[in-house]
Amino acid sequence: MPEFKIQHITKYSYDTPVRDSANKIILYPIVDIYQEVLKQDIMITGNPQIDTYVDYYGNEVGSFTYSEPHNLLVINSQVSVSTHPRPLPTDEIASAIQWNELDSIKYIVPYIDFLKQEYFEGLSELAPIVENERKTDDTPYQAALKFTEYVYKNFEYIKGVTTVETTLDEIWKIKSGVCQDFAHLLMVMLRLVGIPARYVSGYICPRRDGMRGEGATHAWAEAYLPGYGWLGLDPTNNCVANEMHVRLAVGRNFSDCSPVKGVYKGSARHKLEVSVSVGYQEDDNLPDEEELFEVASFPVAETKSAPRNSYERYMEIIQQQQQQQQ
């Protein structure tokens, strides 16, 4: 039963004062029998009141408004989380029965939302690969594991190889990307065979053998399996997402899981920095804000024309989508 402490700081700086910043935050880890929030503090510039509610996908969402003119907006979430290992599927139900059950729920809410495919020209190339990977007598669980392994083995994890305009088709052609790219590809494969799939944003925590993306924000997918429920699958690391993965939010894709998004009135020029520190509860205290940004900051270009890689896109769109209102 590991316990982790996570600090997630979003810092927005503006070249001239802005005002009426209205924001929505999804920074509250999911709470269920496998994940418990021991303590959480969220500190925001100006100390605005945060109102919370639960969205359509079951995520806890906070909203706040900072009306005073300001050059800086900082959202600092510090949370302690305890996780519990989730038993793996026993997979004892006959394969045909499981596939029939999936077919019977494909028009039922909420599964219908997680079966809808994003536009992807490469489907014509991917579909026969999916069928080749899945054997006739495979259960949904076995098929999902094979698809996870396929993405892991056939796509190279490279930061900076994709840009903010990169589509699934481009990722398919260059056979590389980062965690959110791999999660989206895995979801396409799962949905092709009728397995509901949803996107998960969160954190992957340190472990001795090392994992891609550990100690930072991360993304993976969940597949719905008959007789079991939602199973987390991490194609970036070719593993089942379990007690080392802290779930923050779920949705159809990354846009449903943005930790921070909002609007403001004022200057169009801004700079975004997002920093994350993840460690075990028994470790030393979290670094202060200056130390955290010194060792792990992700500045986003101030002009729209500047190129941004997919990791920066993740930090900008997933961590904070803040649009301008004149």
Automatic annotation (TrEMBL):
UniProt-listed Pfam families: Bact_transglu_N, Transglut_core
UniProt-listed InterPro entries: Bac_transglu_N, Papain-like_cys_pep_sf, Transglutaminase-like
Superkingdom: Bacteria
SMART domains documented for this protein: TGc (SM00460)
Transglutaminase-like domain location: 171-237
SUPFAM superfamilies per UniProt: Cysteine proteinases
Protein name: Transglutaminase
Native species: Mucilaginibacter pedocola
Upper classification of the organism: Bacteria, Pseudomonadati, Bacteroidota, Sphingobacteriia, Sphingobacteriales
